[in-house]
Amino acid sequence: MADFYQNGIITTLHNLTERHLADLEADLLRFSKQRPLGLLLPSLYSELEGDALPKIIANLKTVPYLSEIVIGLDRADQGQYQSALAFFDELPQHHRVLWNDGPRLTALDAELKALDLAPKEMGKGRNVWYCMGYILASGKAESIALHDCDIVTYTSELLARLIYPVANPLFNYEFCKGYYARINNGKLKGRVNRLLVTPLIRAMKKVLGDNDYLDYMDSYRYALAGEFSFRRDVLSDIRIPSDWGLEIGVLSEMHRNYAHNRLCQVDIARVYDHKHQDMSLDDQQAGLSKMSIDICKALFRKLATQGQILTPETFRSIKATYYRIALDFVETYRNDAIMNGLYVDIHEEEVAVEMFTKNIMDAGDLFLNQPMEIPFIPSWNRVQSAVPDILERLYQAVEADFQEFSR
């Protein structure tokens, strides 16, 4: 059972009573009559062949309150897209699959690229961005949840708890972030969040002084969770990164666009696990190494937009302060793991901290040496201003793919 402590400057919604799923779904079904509910699923084709996504779909088949499910499909040829249509056809809810590699959507992408309005790299951010555009175009959902397709411990309770805060008409939340404990096979996981994000934010607070944004980020219990929900009006003006900084970028945009009392986080699962990235100690373009650099750059960029001056000396101070705090966290989490009968490899933890320490400096160098880098995908408001009929054409392209290949 969770505690009821409110830490930080956003609301935390706990799991205090293990409320029965049927009660949650009865509420959500009632809410959906007033506020239609949707789900966004960014997926690789390879995930259709894994163990997690079939289980997710089996759970979603029983969910009674969703008006729309939008699936973004990456890395799929025509045959694989048709297989995906058959795979998702089990869903009783209205659903569409965006074939991001298909000729219709790639033609739209090329048109936006010519105007410098398209995502600059492949990945989850690009996938989510096009799905958000489709949701705006379809108009079928007012509140939407987003979660990954590799959650091996998935249950429909996760979705119900995730979407509830933005579905309940009595609540005024525009955005909700999911959180949970990362445990797998008797081991404590979530290393990037535990040993990079939290100690880095604490280090920057110490070096840079009082800062509302850092207090805000420090309020999230799992800043890197890929599960969040939002009201549809959030989608028009949000600018998201296309790299591993997606989750940090989304939180930063919520801080820019909304008051703290319109944002919350919710406990969505007692047990959570998904696929794990390699550490990639020798390759900064892969795995946790690339992830850590992208995350650091996302944090540095946000601070710079607030007028914070960052210099090589600043980054050296942040690095040294981070290293000491992170090593203390290694001991803290080891003790927490032992208390709960879990295992933590101290050597691997400290190796990770050393890699993150180096990558903080490298991310700082990249930030300073690329002052004209534009990391965000443009907002859909801006894209519509340049191409007024873009959402209608995106919707028609997805529908045309469905009509042509679902027969």
Automatic annotation (TrEMBL):
<dbReference type="InterPro" id="IPR029044">
    <property type="entry name" value="Nucleotide-diphossugar_trans"/>
</dbReference>
<keyword id="KW-0808">Transferase</keyword>
<protein>
    <submittedName>
        <fullName>Cell wall biogenesis glycosyltransferase</fullName>
    </submittedName>
</protein>
<dbReference type="GO" id="GO:0016740">
    <property type="term" value="F:transferase activity"/>
</dbReference>
